Amino acid sequence: IDAVTNVVGCTLDLYGPCEDLNIIRHINANNRVRYHGELDRQDVFKVLSVGGVFVLPSYHPGEGYSGALVEAAFAGLPLVISSWNAFPEMFDESEVFFVEPKSVVSLKNCLESICSNPSILNYYSLKSYRASSRFDMEYVTQQFRDDHLSCAGY
Description:
Blueprint: H1 2-5, E1 12-14, H2 21-28, E2 33-35, H3 44-49, E3 54-56, H4 67-74, E4 79-82, H5 87-90, E5 97-99, H6 104-116, H7 120-131, H8 137-151
Parallel strand pairs: 1-2, 3-4, 4-5
């Protein structure tokens, strides 16, 4: 929220559960941030299809392979993500914008760079979409079979 506050041309739409009233007050005090609550499953791709950039600067200790990141990549959204836990295993720096975990300054600088040069979004949109093929069920199943057969000596 704080990273968006002073970035010209940047707004933030937040989705998901939030029960912390202090965070809700902080959101409501910022006219560049809108909190929409949790999405129904059937609305996820509709919301993603009108998004500009998907931002997930997580530093949650239990964060693993994020389904939300995969969905955003399938939707072809440019991704701004923290270099945290499994995220660098999912994508490389040529496909996404990585920011430092827990760094408002890093996120703000990344958003300023994007807002001052919006033409780079097409490049990262395509990269994100192409990277999503690694998460396609048929591809993952084939990779699993190949790895399993390789381990079994076939």
